[in-house]
Amino acid sequence: MPTRNESAAALLDGIRSFIEPAQVRTDPDSCLNYGRDWTRLYTPDPLAVVLPSNIEQIQQLVRYANEHRLALVPSGGRTGLSGAAVAHHGEIVVSMERMNRILEFDPTGRSVTCQAGVVTEALQNFARDHGLYYPVDFASRGSSQIGGNIATNAGGIKVVRHGLTRDWVTGLKVVTGRGDLLDLNRGLIKNASGYDLRHLFVGSEGTLGIIVEATLKLTRPLREPSVMVLGVPDLDGVMSLYHVFRNKLELSAFEFFSELALRHVLKKGVQRPFDAETPYYVLIEFENPDESHTDQALALFEHCAEQGWLADGVISQSETQAKELWRLREDISESISEHQPYKNDIAVRISRVPALLAEIDELLAREYPDFEVLWYGHIGDGNLHVNILKPTGLDSATFAQKCGAVSEHLFAVLQRHGGSISAEHGVGLTKKPYLHYTRDETEIGYLRAIKQVFDPNGIMNPGKIFD
Amino acid sequence: MPTRNESAAALLDGIRSFIEPAQVRTDPDSCLNYGRDWTRLYTPDPLAVVLPSNIEQIQQLVRYANEHRLALVPSGGRTGLSGAAVAHHGEIVVSMERMNRILEFDPTGRSVTCQAGVVTEALQNFARDHGLYYPVDFASRGSSQIGGNIATNAGGIKVVRHGLTRDWVTGLKVVTGRGDLLDLNRGLIKNASGYDLRHLFVGSEGTLGIIVEATLKLTRPLREPSVMVLGVPDLDGVMSLYHVFRNKLELSAFEFFSELALRHVLKKGVQRPFDAETPYYVLIEFENPDESHTDQALALFEHCAEQGWLADGVISQSETQAKELWRLREDISESISEHQPYKNDIAVRISRVPALLAEIDELLAREYPDFEVLWYGHIGDGNLHVNILKPTGLDSATFAQKCGAVSEHLFAVLQRHGGSISAEHGVGLTKKPYLHYTRDETEIGYLRAIKQVFDPNGIMNPGKIFD
């Protein structure tokens, strides 16, 4: 951890010599807002919030931080769920929000180069306006930023077909913790010229440097996707549906959620999709140009119903209906936020999902008998979100402590199944104590050594991922 | 570079204490065959060839090599074109050919785990036998190995749709240059738990450690692909065809080659695809189940012919015809091998291809007026193979020297266009002098530092990629 011997005021004056003074903020509102992400477990306490407008300012800031041993927290849309963008120890938040321009578009190569502060939805809209599609998508699209998506390798709801953020990054400009500007891979599809540093920065959570620009691939839009929601009696049925539908249709999403999760969305005024109540639901999206695959989908539905794998279902007849059905899944996270859920975001190989679910179900029923546990997630990626709601009246600290204690058991189960303690939310602060369940001590030793290469003074987002 | 103070015999006896003596070979035939790849520029001179049968032996070997400062050259099918698998300075070749078993298959997760020595075609056949498809494909499929494919991030003829080897690796077991066994990512689709070391090993050309096992995704087979070959008057036409066909059909390949390249294949007895001779040809492959897209393809053909972008063409009517058409492109490399071609394998962003081609064409006509220069490659990936044939009578050394001199000019042009000196062949020995045209000195400094993390004694494939 960096230490400081100079007065805060003098340090900030130094920064104001190369960044516009108005963009070096210390007011309480800025410190509160820019000092936190979507976790609410930490008390924001940055020294200042700095909003650079160009790469040179960022390089100057990183060099200055090295000289004065100041800690920097790179900051995007702050929609993360692991505390990776939290500044709670007098760090300087480096907000990328002023660097939000799309710089270049290549229609033949289907790619776009943009600054790190571009909001996900702005990029999606830009692509759509040019007849193309940026398929990395998730509920926080309206405020998350491309740089943050890359720093956490964001996944979301289209991974089963389109992969993670990593799969769309063909170029990355980064300022390392040493202050060097690296122009990595420069938008090339093929480049076999030594170790690919780009992929080290994807998922590095701001601990190696600051992502300042990215070149991203785009693809053609989905062709008239249809959405089905199916009511499923048990988790084995969910897996059977995945196997059958994935083999016969070109799926762009395969999501699941529990009845308990659905009820929170219904409370917000969304309609139940059909009369039957089942413990689980599956949402399937597939391309269906000119309704050419509707018959196939209905035949699969009949087959699965005969097998007892589903109890009821509905298929969208229009884009509006498709959007309504998506809300059943997409609105879960927001609908439960008032209950301050303790979130686990775990992943295993798909073949391990049923065994893992059975073991965790048993564990949670034993350990959390009084807590409401909600399941949802991306079965097609082996990714499950386990949300435990805070009971009214229980104080946050006790709740967090109880949940943390059970996490140890949960992650021990996960470890036996070769899983990951964080599928797509990152490690940050919340999952740091559990990293060793997924990466062994030898591996973590290599992670530390790589951090040392890019950030020898430990100024970049210290205390995140590992100490 | 490691140095040795002990006698070779004593060193090899030491290795024979943990690897079966018959698998530690020093006979001239083994040294010759295992000491080289498909380049023929270097005189093989390994100390020995070692063929381990399990991971423990490899770990023991790496630890032994560290103690005695022995250099190790990991060795797959040795089909590489950059000399990365060459042992010409008394190294120990570590052949993976005895570790060639498929270990696990997961039909629901569509993935397979195999040892590094599995031959590409064996994996492709395994996938096909299970109704699936491993889409990384190239002419040397019959002898290249999965470990080597990963170590070079092999590309090939299906990248435009299916990406590179990197995109299919979900897990990697490696023995690092320190002798540690790392079990990286373990087949997970999603895993946001710190830096992804897996991607450092992809494309590392044996310089960080030895890849011993991999988990690879599989996908569904292509649905009745059709192949078109089109005769194109100029390179602008090639680009126009790419734009038009890619927007309307789901392409699985978009290859190009020159008339000069085609003639070498025709000499081997393959039929010319149609009467017209044009300077360039394009091969397009697209899914065409029940010939549902034939009309679309023919309409595009008509449109492009009207625009003057193509002069003639043919579409396959059967799988056999499709295979015959593929030979026109796939057989080029083998048909010219007797001319000891000097190979350049370059890449730029697709939008830069026309400008780059024009400049290089002019450069080569000026600098190589007496040499036969053949073009072919993967336009959809911005990847061009430039092959210069050795004139009969010119000695190899003079030829190589002349070609190397022009490479400096060629790579200077490439650098201005932000390109790569090696798209898919790797750096190895042949491209090492030119690495700085693609990676700047700052970046190369980071590459060296990362090498130091994984291989502090420099025993892993020393002298490859950089010194």
From TrEMBL, chains A, B:
Organism domain of life: Bacteria
Oxidoreductase listed as a keyword: yes
The protein, known as: FAD-binding oxidoreductase
Family as reported in the entry's similarity comment: Belongs to the FAD-binding oxidoreductase/transferase type 4 family.
Gene3D superfamilies: 3.30.465.10, 3.30.70.2190, 3.30.70.2740, Vanillyl-alcohol Oxidase, Chain A, domain 4
Keyword terms of this UniProt record: FAD, Flavoprotein, Oxidoreductase
The organism of origin for this protein: Candidatus Competibacter phosphatis
Keyword Amino-acid biosynthesis: no
Pfam families found in the cross-reference section: FAD-oxidase_C (PF02913), FAD_binding_4 (PF01565)
